[in-house]
Amino acid sequence: MNTENLRTFLLLVKLRNFTRVAEQLFIAQSTVTNRIAELEREAGVRLLRRDTRNFTLSDEGKTFLEYARRMVEVEDACISAVRGGIRQVRIGATNAVYEGFVKERVFEGIAAGNSYRVTIGHTAGLLEMLWDGLLDVAYIYQDVRRAGYLCTPFLRDELVFLVRADKNAFPDGIRQKQLNALPCAMCNFSLLEIGSYLSELFPAGHVFPFEVDNSNKVKDFLSAGLGYAFLPRGIVKDELASGKFAEIPPLDFPRMQIPSYCVCRKEDKELCF
Known about the structure:
Elements: H1 3-15, H2 18-25, H3 29-43, E1 48-50, E2 55-57, H4 59-82, E3 88-93, H5 95-111, E4 115-120, H6 123-131, E5 137-140, E6 149-164, H7 176-179, E7 184-187, H8 192-201, E8 210-212, H9 215-223, E9 228-232, H10 237-242, E10 245-248, E11 256-265
Parallel strand pairs: 3-4, 3-5, 7-8, 7-9
Antiparallel strand pairs: 1-2, 5-11, 6-9, 6-10, 6-11
Helix pairs in contact: 1-2, 1-3, 1-4, 2-3
């Protein structure tokens, strides 16, 4: 398939407007239409469902979208790898592992003259990208075993209970039963172990004032002084060191330990931190 057509399709899905796509690509709107039609002819299915003013992706189009992204990423990675003899290391990491540990090492590598492409995502999606050859290495929370790949322990973190320092009503520690009455943010780390740990601390059906799937957004919640939250220590080490956030020790429940892992193909071991 012509990757120019694939890129046009991806941009159309992003912008949701044929005219805007044409303007951004400096081509006629009819050219956008023709490129999509050519993809549909090659795929043998309708990718878009159109009405008079709008369109939606068909079920086949939703499946096609994921493969289109991968094909374009593979082409970009290939060009990057061979152009100028510089290999761009393609790293995937969960947000918490990246912010807590990987980011510093990436920046050190850049300062040393290396090149990186970083993808932030959840463990399952990152592993799929690694299996598809779209990543060289993934830093995740899951210990996996697959032929031809290495999975080695990366770092061990722990989940800590936090609040903005000037809002700390529990400087001596907190008991589990006291958690239920507090405004707590809930972060979905897509890690079953964390979900199980938190479900045991809060009653079934507990309503959180703020739920989000990005740990940095939880830090915003804490910075605004809106309440409390559990986060991995690694991503708040600067805020704890500066005194911005305070850690509240648990008095009658354990801290959760969070191991992370580095996964790569055996031949790419030297690319790992």
